[in-house]
């Protein structure tokens, strides 16, 4: 039976403190408390730290292909989108079964410690795939593609989609000011005109935000998602994140798709730290970075009662990493793919080091063996089979560097 177990003894990062020599008990997929289970305990020996599993606040799973497209810097996202859709790589990607591209994106997120992702795309595109993927893709959101007149017309329009979000208490998500031309820079005004700037609004990119825009976002308690890797690839610059943080805006980090962004969320946070240092000549705080991939996106996407932190009653979504227990936050920020030691979703292991094979065996699910940076890992399903299918479709041995198996 796998309905109750504990992991111990561990260094556990909870919202308000770092607990050492503590166990965590999972009952029926939820966190039951921080003691040893009398029913079943797995001893975790070695230098490990437990975090909540990560949340990737912005991705487009259908764009999970490689290589990146484009010759930057662009004036806004529109000419990049044209280059993307007229590229041989785009044509090659489209030969594949769309579900396989989604699956590649899900595995990309899983091996970097992510169990929850926001896939920014109209519902009719991701609805057929979500329940078949190994990780959680958020279902409850309304959206528009962009807050300008040349957006891709996703959803029913800014005003209607935002009203829907308020009515159903879900997030309304949109790209905004992803560029520097006059229309892109009207993003916040466009939202205001349609009464769509509120605590339900989640704004992605905002690289054109002025100080006035930042104040408006702060005053309305809207949320911000930062995708520094994608911004730098397309525009050679990113949003005024220090000013956005100082204004008190809830900030999260997202990867965007591999067509423009970093390979995965753990690369993205390293890029965020590096670029912040270059922009402001000071360090971006490691705890803030960890908040931006756990509690902050949980708040933005209105799932904070279930996810984003290790607290009794929340879902058992756990991330165990190898690292220095005396410096947990910087251990996570500096972690490589090989340091992602165990990823658990609602109590069930999805991915991790072979030395935790007992937990995998007891869960009763099907796993395969892969090697990441020379380290043997167990993973749910069969990502090697996926890569074989992709290679067969395109006619050569395809490599996707965000899935280095
Ligand atoms: Zn995007």
Number of domains: 2
Question: Quick one: CATH superfamily of the largest domain?
Answer: Metal-dependent hydrolases
% residues in beta strands? 15-25%
What is the CATH topology assignment of the largest domain?
TIM Barrel
Ligand kinds = zinc ion
Architecture per CATH nomenclature, i.e. the level-2 architecture of the largest domain: Alpha-Beta Barrel
Mean pLDDT: 97
Structural class per helix/strand content? alpha/beta
Structure, explained:
- By secondary structure, the protein is α/β, with parallel strands linked by helices.
- It has 2 domains: 4-53 and 306-394, Urease, subunit C, domain 1, CATH 2.30.40.10; 55-300, Alpha-Beta Barrel (TIM Barrel).
- Helix content is 32%, strand content 24%.
- The protein has 15 helices and 18 strands.
- The protein has helices spanning 77-85, 88-94, 98-110, 123-130, 158-168, 187-193, 211-219, 228-235, 241-246, 265-280, 286-291, 295-300, 328-333, 357-363, 383-394; strands spanning 4-13, 18-27, 30-33, 41-43, 48-52, 54-59, 114-119, 136-137, 142-146, 172-176, 201-205, 223-226, 250-253, 318-322, 340-345, 348-353, 367-372, 375-380.
- Strand 11 (201-205), helix 7 (211-219) and strand 12 form a beta-alpha-beta unit.
- Helix 3 crosses helix 15.
- The mean pLDDT is 97.
- Bound molecules: zinc ion.
- Zinc ion binds at residues 58, 60, 120, 175, 204, 256.
